[in-house]
Amino acid sequence: MAFPETRLRRLRKNQNLRDMLTSTIITVNDFVYPMFVIYGKNKEIEISSMPGVYQYSLDKLVGAVENVVKLGIRSVLLFGIPEQKDSVGTGAYIETGIVQQAVRLLKKEFPDLIIVTDVCLCEYTSHGHCGLIENGNVLNDQTLDLLAKTALSHAEAGADIVAPSDMMDGRVGAIRKELDLKGYENTILMAYSAKYASSFYGPFREAADSTPQFGDRKTYQMDPRGSINEAVLETKLDILEGADIVMVKPAMAYMDIIRKMKDEFLTPIASYNVSGEYSMIKAASQNGWIDEKSVVLELMTGLKRAGSDIILTYHAASIAKWLQEV
Fold it and tell me: Which residues bind 5-aminolevulinate 1 (predicted)?
């Protein structure tokens, strides 16, 4: 039947009806809050390109996480910035690394908090790439041991979820094997499976001081123009190698990929609403061009509707506050 017999506006005529019939609902449980941790004391440094996002020293991190937990957020993702960098990213996997210290501290203070750690070398290498370098090339197989070593050090510190973001071939299998061998078979592995060489990462590179010193990351991260089938294959391989959760990154421009992953796989799907996406909304709202709250909540609803089971976003703390106001 068509109009006038069918009138879809009947189902929208008041708020109670709209609430009853809504099919996509976001809750605070959907979100992981990324945080940056640095060495030193009494440091809380706002990232200029990411208003409202900070680098925290360990003593300041506890208070910041306490505020996050009070909002009902149950999970954080930790990125570490070392004091010194070298060609092999030593700071990523040493026992006294900044992430390892942060995990131990947070697990002591907040034992029920789900701690996710980023497993990569780019924040720790002097060249800013996610793997070892030889003659200007990023080495794949030789990097796997260091990634596995990094993941193991995070698990030993108490991380609940390790999240390799490097996009080296075979890194999920290498990490899963190392974790299982050392008795950490219950540590969850969340793979950045469809991670694109995106233009949306700029503010993060300021936050993590991880800009490549030469070239770019296009030989290992995916081409934004690539086929959906490539994303499916990357994700399928990660699942076969032992990934418990798979991720699409970035989120906004890749909702089609999120939806495809949700349709293809039974594994939980995460999406990462990245720094550039965050900063665009913050800049526009600060200029009065958009309403930040309504735009962010609409975007998160879209990501959930596309198929995201988990959303990693720098908006998480604000979202938690807004949801409490409802």
Answer: 205, 217
CATH number of this structure's domain 25-325: 3.20.20.70
Residues classed as catalytic: 195, 249
User: Residue 222: CB partners within 8 Å, gap ≥ 6?
Assistant: 167, 194, 195, 196, 197, 230, 231, 234
pLDDT in tens, 234-286: 999 999 999 999 999 999 999 999 999 999 999 999 999 999 999 999 999 99
Tell me: cis bond preceding 203? Omega within 30 of 0 counts: no
What 3-state DSSP class applies to 314?
coil
> Could you give phi then psi for residue 38, rounded to 5 degrees?
-130, 165
User: Token pair for residue 35?
Assistant: 């945080």
Using DSSP's 3-state secondary structure scheme, residue 154 falls into helix
Return the amino acid letter for 46. Answer: E
Binding site for Zn(2+): residue ranges?
120, 122, 130
Rounded Cα gap, residues 114 and 106, in angstroms: 10
Buried-state track 191-211, b at ≥16 Cβ within 10 A, e below 16: bbbbbbbbebbebbbebbbbe
Task: Locate the DSSP E strands across 16-167.
Answer: 31-38, 44-46, 54-57, 75-81, 114-119, 132-134, 137-139, 161-164
Q: Which residues are annotated as a binding site for 5-aminolevulinate?
A: 205, 217, 275, 314
- pTM value surpassing 0.90: yes
Write the pLDDT tens digit of every residue in 104-152: 999 999 999 999 999 999 989 988 888 999 998 999 999 999 999 999 9
